[in-house]
Amino acid sequence: MGGVTGGLTTLPGNDTLENHRLAHASKATGEQTRVFSLQTDIWAAPRSDAFLRYNLTEGRPPISSLTVCYRFNIQQFRDGVYFLSYATGDHMDNALLLYQREETMNFYYNDVESANMYLKVHDTLGSWHHHCHLLNFPNYRLYVDGELSGEGQMTGEKRPLDTNGTIYIGQEQDSFAGGLDRLQSTSAFMAQINVWDSLLSEREIRSIAKCSTNLFGNVLSSDTDDVEVVNVGEERRPLASLCEKSDEFVIVPEKWYIGPSEKFCSVSNSEVFTPADDVVNEQLFNETRQFLEQCGGKSYRLLRLGATDRVSDGDWRRFKDGAPLSYTAWAPGEPNDGPKSDCIVLKKSLSKWGDVDCKDEYCFSCLKNKDKFLQIRGLCQQKEHHTRFLLDGYVNARPFFRGYYGHSMYMTKEGDWVLRDGLANKTLAAMTKRRSLTTEYPLGRRQWTVLSPFCRHFVDDVVEISLSACATDEFTCADGSCVPGSVRCNLLEDCLDSSDEENCNLVEFPEGYHGHRPPPGVTFQDPLLVQPTVNIIRFSNVDDINLAVYLEFEVSLAWTDRNLKFRNLKMNAENKLSKEEVRKVWVPEVEFLNVNDGRLKELKKSLFVRAVGEPDPPHFNDVKMESPNANTLSFPSTDTVFPASSGLMVQRILYSASFSCNFQLFHYPFDTQACSVFFELTSATSLVVAFQNASVEYRGRTDLSKYNVGPMTAAIYDNEGQDAVEATFQLERRYSLLVLTIFLPTVLLLGIGYSTLFVKLALLQKPMADEADGSLPDARRQGLLVPAGGFPLQSLLLDNALRVNGSSGVEEKAGKMRVLKIVVLF
C-alpha cells in the first residue's frame, strides 16, 4: 500500500526503491560531476542559442508523478532564471516550466501557471543552491537546499505529462523546440540535473543537497545521459566542492588610514576582512601578488587586516563586531610591539601576520558577503530587485561593482569610472571627476555625465546616481552612509557631511505651475474649497462711545493645492515654506468689509504645510528622474514624498484692527451686544474659489473689564458672487459691576441727603455752637461717635435707639434726644 506524506502520495514499495537508489548512487557517484556554464560571462550580451537540450524517448508512458532536481549558481539575472522548459507541442509549450524571478519560484504544469503559491528561494549571486520539485497532481512541494520551502495545490486539469517532448535547460521554449528569446535565458552554472518518474523521499533529497550522494534520474540525468550541449561550457568538478562554503574577499589596492578603510568596507555593506583559516589566509596572500607595486613599497608590511587589540593588549578582536579571533597566523616573534601596535597586517614575503601601529596607511580587503548587497539608484529601474549591486572582483587592477541585471561600474585604463549596461551592450555614463589626492570610488551620491541616452536623459546631461547599502526607507548621505529617512531636513545634521540638510525644498512644483491661478477643486469643474478659521487673540478695547471694537486676531485659511507634491513633511508640525516657495505658490486673498476708519494692521504672516495623510510608498530609485533643471537632479528620491491630498496648505495672518459695531443701548446696563468680523474672498468668484466649514475661536479670558465674552458663530454668505465670512461674537455687559460701583453709592448718597430734610434746624444749631465755644465735653464721654479719619455729619437720633457703653461714664436715659456725630466713609 502507498502511504501519504504531507499531501504527496508515495509509490508502492517506495522504501525499497529508495534504498536501491541510494545503494546504486553510492557505487556510481565517484568524486566528479558535470558542471555546465550557461552564459556565465557577465561581460557578454545575452544570447538565445546557448542551452542544453534533451529529447525524451518515444514510447515512454505518460508520467503522473515526477521529481525534478538540479544544482545551480546564478551569475546574473535577466527576465528570469529559466532552469527547465519542457514542451510537447506548439499548443503545449509550457508542459512543464520551472523558472525563478527575483526571490520567488514559479512553474507551469500542463500549460497552467500555479500562481496561487508563494515559493521563496535564494536570489544570491555566485552561491551554489539546490532545488527539488515534487509534483503529483494536484499536490506540489519545493525543497531548497534539502529543506522543505513551500507546498500547495496546483490548478488546472488532472492529466499526466506526455513523454514525447523536448527539454531545454537554460532557455524557455515559446513554441515546440523553438521560440527562444535571449532575455528569457539563464546565466548560471548548473549541475546534477535529474528527472525521475517517481517521488523522492526527504532523506534522498537531503542527501543529494548535502553532496552526500549523486542520484541519477531515470527520465533525465545530466551526468549519464547524452545531453546536447549548444554553446555551453562544460567541466568536471569534485562533487563535494559544490557544497563547500568559504569566505571570499576583494582587495582594495589603496593605501589608506584605518578610518577611510573601515568606512569604504562599511559603505560597501561589508567589513575589513580577516581570514578565518589557513586555506583562506593562503588565498588572500596569493591574491595580493598582483598588487605588490601599489601596496608593498619598501616595507615588509602589505595588507591591513580587520582586527585590533586596542581595548586590551593581546586580546585581538574584529573591527566589525568585537568578536574575538578564533584563528591567527602570526609570524615568528609576532606580535612584538605591545601597546604601541594595535593593528594587524599581512606580510609581503610570506602568508603570516605582524602587529603594527594603527595610524599607518595600508592597503586592505573587504569581505565579499553575497547575502548583502548595494543598491544603485537613478537608473529608473522597473523593480527594486533590479537595483541590486555587489562589490566583486577586479577590472584593470581595481575592484568593480556589478549588478544583478547586467549593469556594472568599473574603472577604465584611463582612470575613469564608467557605468555599463551589459544587457543592452552600451556604456551609459562616466563619473564626473573631482579634485582629490586619492583614488575615488563611485560609492555614495555622485555626478555622472551621460554618454548614451537612458531613462529621460540625453547625451551630456549631468545626473546624480548613488550606490550605497541604504534601504529604501533610508536617506543616502553624499558619502554613501545611511541615516533614517525621518531625519531628512529636520534642521539637524545627521550625516557627517551634512548632506541630509541640503536641497530641503518642501514643495515640488510641476512644469507649467502658475502662482496667479487658483488650483482646481476635486475635479476641474469644481471650485477650490478654502476653510477659514478666525482666532480672536485679544479684545484690546470695547468703545461704547465710538461704537467700535478693537481686536488682535488671526485668520487661518486652509486648502488643498492639487497641483503640488510635498517632501519630507513632519507630522504634527508646521512645515514652513521657504521665501522662494512662498513667492511661487498660489495663496487666497481676502478683504475686510467692516473695518472702522481703515484701522487694519498686518502684524505677522506665515505659510506652511500640514501633513494630513500618509506619504507615498518609498520608491526604490534613489534619484528623481525629472528635475526643474533639465541638466541636474534636485531631489533624491529617498525624500519622503507626500501627494497633494496628504498635504494641507495653511496661510495664517495676524492682524490688529478696529471694527464697527452697532451698539444697542436701550436695555443698558443689562444689554448684550453682537459684533462681527466680516471679510470676503477676492481671489476669484465663488465659481472658482469658495469657502467651506468656517469657524471662529477664542481661548482668552471671557471676563473683560466691562463685558463677558459670549457665544461665537461663523457663517458663510454670498456677497455679490464672492464668498464672504461673518464671524460674530457676543459681548454681555457686566451689570453687577456697574450696580456696585455707580448705582449703589449714588442711591446711598441720595438717601443720606434726603434724610436731612426731616431734622429740625434748631437741634442742629445748638451742638454746633457748643462745639464752636469748646463747652462740649469729651466727645466719647458725651456719646459722640467720631471714627479716626472720618468725615463728621451732625444728626439727631432717638436716645432709645442708642446704647452707650457704661464704661464711658454716660448714663442711658430713655426717651431723651442725644446729639450724635455720624461719620460716613466713602
From TrEMBL:
Main localization category: membrane
Required cofactor(s): Ca(2+)
Location(s) in or outside the cell: Membrane
Ranges annotated as spanning the membrane: 735-759
Disulfide bridges in this chain: C470-C482, C477-C495, C489-C504
Gene Ontology molecular function, alphabetical: extracellular ligand-gated monoatomic ion channel activity; metal ion binding
PANTHER family: LAMININ G DOMAIN-CONTAINING PROTEIN, PENTRAXIN
Record-given protein name: Putative neuronal pentraxin-2-like isoform X2
Organism: Penaeus vannamei (Whiteleg shrimp)
Biological classification of the source: Eukaryota, Metazoa, Ecdysozoa, Arthropoda, Crustacea
